[in-house]
Amino acid sequence: MTESAPAGVANEPPRQEAAETYVAVRNAFVLASSLAGTWAVALVVKLFLPRRLGPELFGAFNFADVLAMTASVLLDLGLDTYIRKELPVRPRHADDFLGTGLLARVGVAIIVAMVTGGIVVASHRPPAVLATVLLFVVGQLLLANNNTFAAVLHAARAVDRLAVVNVGSKLLWAGAVLVALWMRAGLPWLALSFVASEGVRSLVLWRHLRRRFHVVLRVDWAATRRVLAAASPFFVNAVAIMFYARIDVNIMALVLSDREVGWYGAAGNVAGIALLMAPLMSAILMPQLARAAGRSESELLGMFRRSMEVVLACAIPVSMLLFLSARLIVERVFGPAFAPTVRALELLSPMFVLTYLAMLSSTCLILQGRSWRVTVISLSSVALNAALNLTLLRPAVRVLGAGGGGTAAAAISVFTEVVAATAVLASVGRGAFDARLARSLAIAVSACLVALVVDRFLLDIGAIRMVVAIVVYAAIVLATGGIRVRELVELARSARLARGEHANVA
Predict the structure, then answer these.
(1) CA 144 → CA 69, 105, 204, distances in Å?
(2) DSSP conformation class of 283
(3) Among 139-143, 244-248, 385-389, 476-480, which stretch is predicted with the lowest mean pLDDT?
(4) Could you tell me if 311 and 277 are in contact, meaning their C-beta atoms sit under 8 angstroms apart?
(5) Whole-angstrom distance between the N-terminal and C-terminal Cα of the chain?
(6) Which of 24, 35, 278, 366 has a CA between 20 and 30 Å from the CA of residue 289?
(7) Which helix (H) or strand (E) holds 9?
(8) Which residues in 145-175 are b (16+ Cβ under 10 Å) and which e?
């Protein structure tokens, strides 16, 4: 006769899993609300800037912003990914390296400022652009530190204060930018708005870390060297990803006019909205997947597949809506001076489904201990993207005319993203897919195609056709089980029942 286990022992794993689900769902909701707020503010500013500055001046501003952002990826040091991977199971480990890591960033930032300043001078840009780039480098240093503070909070699953601070700092930035534009101040003042908002955010986040988690900053080079060595694949991968994301604008700024950069930059501002969920994937999914990986490989892959199912079901309609509304957005928001932006924006719309696919697959590979595989794929994508842009940008302008550079750059970005996403997903292996995920993906893609066909038949009714297309997509996905509403309800119910366990888990 088999002896039953005590109730408390038998129920412990399900209760723990339910409690962790509650924490993950709750934090995802809090951060999603915060992101919605910050993106709403950023959207107003980013869509307003091109129209206010015009293609040429916005092109110079975009060059300065992207150059500083690209070079400042060196400030990452791989620490944020390392923190999200290690601190969920070793929370006090942050004291070993955080202080020295922040100190090392200052030294790297000085080098970045010298290099970017030299590039601006060598390209014969005016002094205002040089000042703008240097201010953006200072802002990027503060942003890198803030991202590290946020990573510590993500690992501890304490995001309430972080959400408030994110929205508040974004409002401060938006207000400063609008004042600078109203006063017709120069480009450096726009960069200074970024520095001020990130500076305030740094002070508030650090005070919160000190008070609640008693984080200590101390100098320990030996421990930090060990951490940086362990984080090196994350660092190289972060550098590759940033160069991959920005290499097209940097090359365009060197070989084409500021006007071409301005047109393509406007498309990038709008298309970036589709990446709204990206911070959630690193902030919430990676710590959660890390805990699953600590229990078993099969649990990691199972959670990966279900996460992929939800992420793609949400990302596909967003990309579809971006494609359908491209012309309307450019005409209503940017004005006729930005008409060449439409083609680039339409081409960029599907790229973000691939980006989410690659991001989630990369996270899975990192947790499987194959970080360098991700890094090799990222570096290969950078090389492919750069080679194609250097080869095709100028011919594209000659053949396609105004906006041809942006059209070519957008097409190249989508092509290289297809290659990268395919490579990283294939590296995860057979465990990345099951019949359920394949069915959900097929339903989502089919629903998207049907919605696009419906849209073509409804061109005469104007912008309302986009609402019809989204309704058609949602109806097909829900009716065919592409998104399982019952499972979402069960997830919410189990999370609610686990609320009493929150204090013990967190």
Answers:
(1) 11, 9, 15
(2) I
(3) 244-248
(4) yes
(5) 39
(6) 35
(7) helix 7-71
(8) bbbbbbbbbbbbbbbebbbebbbbbbebbbe
Quick one: tokens of 454? Answer: 């419906």
> What amino acid is encoded at 310 in this protein?
V
Residue 450 has phi, psi (to 5 degrees) of -60, -45
Cβ-Cβ contacts under 8 Å for 273 (sequence gap 6 or more): 39, 43, 322
Burial of 462 (0-12, 13-18, 19+ CB in 10 A): exposed
Alpha-carbon dihedral 377, 382, 388, 393, rounded to 10 degrees: 150
CA distance 151 to 91: 12
**463 Cβ neighbours under 8 A, 6+ residues apart:** 325, 328
| Residue among 493, 477, 499, 494 at smallest CA distance from 310 | 477
Give the Cα separation of 104 and 81 in Å (integer).
17
Band of the pLDDT at 15, cuts 50, 70, 90?
A: very low
Question: How many CA within 13 A on the CB side of residue 116?
Answer: 30
Structure tokens given for 438: 């394949």
For residue 253, count other CB atoms closer than 10 A to its CB.
24
Diameter of the chain measured on Cα atoms:
86
Is this structure's pTM higher than 0.70? no
DSSP state of 6: P
Please tell me which of 100-104, 108-112, 346-350 the model is most confident about, judged by mean pLDDT.
Answer: 108-112
Whether 415 and 286 have beta carbons less than 8 Å apart is answered as: no
Answer positive or negative: Cα dihedral of 126, 145, 231, 506: negative
How far apart CA 187 and CA 61 sit, in angstroms, is: 7
Q: Which residue has the higher pLDDT, 486 or 137?
A: 137
